[in-house]
Amino acid sequence: MKDIANYALQVMKKAGADKAACTAGQGRKDEFNVEANNFTLLRTNFSDSLHLKVLVDGKKGTTTINKLDKDSIDKAVEECVALAKQGTPDEAEDIAPLATNKDFDQKIGGFDAAKLFSRSQEFLTQVKDEMPKIMIEGMTAEFNSGCTTYANSNGVCFTNESESYNAGSSFNAVEGDKTSSFNYYYSALANLNTPFIDLGMTRTLFEESVRSLTPRGFDGKHVGKIIVTPAAADMLWHTIFGCFLDDFSMIQGTSRWKDALNTKVTDSKLTLRTSPLHPLIVGGERVTGDGFESVNQDYIKEGVLTSFDLSLYAANKTGKPRAGNNAWSLEVLPGDMPYADMLKGVDRGILINRFSGAQPGPSGDVSGVAKNSFLIENGTVTDALVETMVSFNLVDVLQNIVGISREVNADGYGVLPWICLDGVTISGA
């Protein structure tokens, strides 16, 4: 990959690029697939990719191809430079400056096909024996490996060799003519030491699906508390990035927090970070998309906004600091409240495992449907609920967090606790 990246750089410079950057990668995926509780597919996929970026007189051109031979690279460079020459100059465009170049090794010992199949078979058997009402609609067990090199004309060169397992399923519960709502759960793994049914929240979500065969409606309209589980990360944490921290919201000036750096924006209980180097994160990034070595990054620390999720371009455009990573590996620090005590503090509310709603606007108003969720009454999780509407303003509820659990769930992608929020409107049928 280094040779391919260096060749692409040479061609881009010869073609007239003032600055150039490229990412060359090769990957392999070995996977087992299951549908309706039966193995249906074993396959190996290979992938090549080359992403090119050139700057000509301050104008940017980019292109991505899936071939790595010299003829394909030559043609892609020609097209990339032509696109740049047709563009508009933008002073914010740049490439990463020279830093200490590194080769990262995230290999885990290679592919154990027999054990991956054995674990997959074991999983199906355990589900059938222990939870016969669960239907595995689809399952994937895979081993991913690859090598990627980022290089640019400033002399930056990072290479990463990585390996990881991934396993997960989509499922529901079935009993006679009763069917629960669809759900899914996936984990990233550095080894195959743990039965798949015991990964993260898998067993809990299966058990709750069975309980969801006889749901009830939420009576009336109520403003109160909800508990958001780690399985519903999109509902809160990804929404914070999309509404208030990312390139688009900051460049457009729509973020309600655009002028709030180093000020308190949430309850002091909350520390939100992205941690690709965390020991419980599997295959976390080592290089950002724009060519910097990735580091762990705090965004909200004890309620104070400490950073935005900005690329090099967005940082130059807004005058704000660049983020230290690509914001994929979410971590929320645990609180001091046991989950059991959190439940006891909810007189009437809901436990949310999955949420479906449109991306909130700049105001942070969230509205959507709580799915795979449960009624909480007098501090106890009781009946499964039919799909129930919830709405709240994200900024408002984060300023008065009821509690964050001591317990966390680590699925290889993130490390997240349970969180209790108040002031949420819950609307039944």
Keyphrases for this structure?
single chain; 429 residues; alpha+beta; nine-stranded mixed beta sheet; eight-stranded mixed beta sheet
Explain what you see.
- The protein has 429 residues and is an alpha+beta fold.
- Helix content is 22%, strand content 40%.
- The protein has helices spanning 2-14, 70-85, 113-130, 202-211, 233-245, 247-251, 312-318, 339-344, 394-398, and strands spanning 19-35, 38-56, 59-65, 102-106, 134-152, 157-175, 178-179, 183-189, 221-228, 272-274, 297-301, 304-305, 330-332, 348-352, 354-357, 365-371, 374-377, 380-384, 388-393, 401-410, 415-427.
- Strands 9, 14, 15, 16, 17, 18, 19, 20 and 21 form a nine-stranded mixed β-sheet that branches.
- The longest helix is centred in the N-terminal third of the chain and has 18 residues, at 113-130.
- It is globular.
- 41% of the residues are buried.
- The mean pLDDT is 94.
Précis, in short:
This protein has 429 residues and is α+β, with helices and mostly antiparallel strands. It is built from nine helices and 21 strands.
Gyration radius over CA = 24 Å
- Characterize the overall form: globular
Mean pLDDT: 94
Helix content: 10-25%
Poorly predicted regions: none
Draw up the topology in text.
Blueprint: H1 2-14, E1 19-35, E2 38-56, E3 59-65, H2 70-85, E4 102-106, H3 113-130, E5 134-152, E6 157-175, E7 178-179, E8 183-189, H4 202-211, E9 221-228, H5 233-245, H6 247-251, E10 272-274, E11 297-301, E12 304-305, H7 312-318, E13 330-332, H8 339-344, E14 348-352, E15 354-357, E16 365-371, E17 374-377, E18 380-384, E19 388-393, H9 394-398, E20 401-410, E21 415-427
Parallel strand pairs: 4-6, 9-14
Antiparallel strand pairs: 1-2, 1-5, 2-3, 5-6, 6-7, 6-8, 9-21, 10-11, 10-13, 11-12, 14-17, 15-16, 16-19, 17-18, 19-21, 20-21
Helix pairs in contact: 1-2
